[in-house]
Amino acid sequence: MKRICAFVLIGFASLFWMGAPAEAVLCTAGQPPNNNNGVIDSLTLAAQVVADGGINDPNCAISITFPLPTINIPTFSIIGKTLTIIGSAATPVTIVNSHPTGTVILKGTGDVKIDNASIKARKKVDIDCAGSGPPLCEVHVTNSELIATSTLDFGGSGGVLEVTGKGDVEVTNTSFTAGDKVFFQSFEGSLTISCRGGSAGGCQDPLLSGVVQQLCPQGFPCNVDFADAAALRGVCFPVTPPGNCDGGRAQKDFFAKEAITCTGLDLTADRHVVFNSKNGPINCQDANIVADGAVTIAVDNCTVPAPCINLDGAIINSDNSPLNVSIKSGCATKPGTVNDIVFQANSLTGRPGSVKVIACGGILLSK
Predict the structure, then answer these.
(1) Domain contains 225
(2) Max Cα separation, the chain?
(3) How many domains does the chain divide into?
(4) 161, 134 in Cβ contact below 8 A?
(5) Does residue 328 lie in a domain region?
(6) Which residues constitute the domain of residue 229?
(7) d(CA 164, CA 186)
(8) 81 phi and psi, to 5 degrees?
(9) What is the pLDDT of residues 74-100, one digit of tens each?
(10) Which residues contact 237 (CB under 8 A, 6 or more apart)?
(11) Other Cβ atoms closer than 10 A to 44
(12) Signed CA dihedral, 304, 307, 309, 313: sign only
């Protein structure tokens, strides 16, 4: 019987006696079985991966282009040398863990690329590339949604969303949320963030779009109650939430060694928000950031030409909490000047007396 993977009988027996879970191994000694080279591009292969509890093969180039059936185990992980998850607007790749304490882990020692995908879990979504290169591995998430909440939807409680990489990390044209904490970091490179909105386009086959897996997780027969006509229409015409980047009842952290780019970012947070770059710059022109807690935007030691922080046209509101924008060192002059941090004073609001803009000891704003 053909399977996704090839096992050596003795090795399989050893795993059985050790009590280890069976996992799909898509690449073996450089000779992929069935010539699929780790490609999950059919319902049969997608179902096999879910049944096996994921994939763990750090030598394999894994590619997923077909929606996975709904997962219902505590931890589902896809680990490979490189990881590519590519859907389309009509047929996004869905990876949804509906277990009450479910986690989805997507990791590569090389690059991780995700496009047109919906990745959800109730406890944690963890996306990471760990390879130190050279070149440094990168993470690119585009045209997707990342959700880690108790409800598998926006507005839910609980959940942690982490996207990290050794090299550049990009989460663009993507909606994301976590009930507790959102954490994005590039350890040695740059971080780019932007939200998305709009509709998924024309009529989608619900058998391919992932809608049926969500409505009927136990399979058929399946009875579904629709609250109204719009809910029924949404089966074939799903609508992407418009520009949703929210949540974070504990905190939202965005860290990078080099540049942080959040131009035009529309972000809300239920608690604190931190943007921190070691070397700069931080470019958040025309961003709209609203938090129910403190907002911190900081560069540790600026190593780039001024402005090291650019908030031109940005509107930032920390409600009744502190708002701090600062460059600790590296300004062209000391103390720093308005050339180092670009902002509009009336667009920065927070607790009276706790809104401060400081460049290398130079107080540019205190209100």
Answers:
(1) yes
(2) 73
(3) 1
(4) no
(5) no
(6) 28-165+197-242
(7) 6
(8) -65, -50
(9) 999 999 999 999 999 889 999 999 999
(10) 199, 200, 202, 203, 204
(11) 11
(12) negative
Q: Can you tell me which residue has the tokens 């990290």?
A: 164
Q: Which two tokens stand for residue 108?
A: 């590569």
| Position 82 in a domain | yes
| Residues linked to residue 199 through DSSP beta bridges, in sequence order | 239
Q: Which of 8, 29, 108 lies closest to 63, judged by CA?
A: 108
26-76 tens-digit pLDDT: 454 333 344 446 889 999 989 999 998 999 888 889 999 999 999 999 999
- Counting other chains too, the contacts that 275-283 makes at CB distance below 8 Å and 24 or more residues apart are 276/300, 277/191, 279/303, 279/304, 279/330, 280/304, 280/308, 280/309, 280/327, 280/330, 281/307, 281/308, 281/309, 281/310, 282/308, 282/309, 282/310, 283/259, 283/310
* Residue indicated by tokens 């185990």: 73
Domain assignment present for residue 172? The answer is: no
Distance CA 216, CA 139 (A): 32
User: C-alpha angle with apex 89: 87 to 95, nearest 5 degrees?
Assistant: 45
Q: What is the DSSP letter of 34?
A: G
Kindly list the distances between the CA atom of residue 88 and the CA atoms of 14, 66, 172, 182, 283, in Å, as whole numbers in the listed order.
40, 10, 16, 26, 30
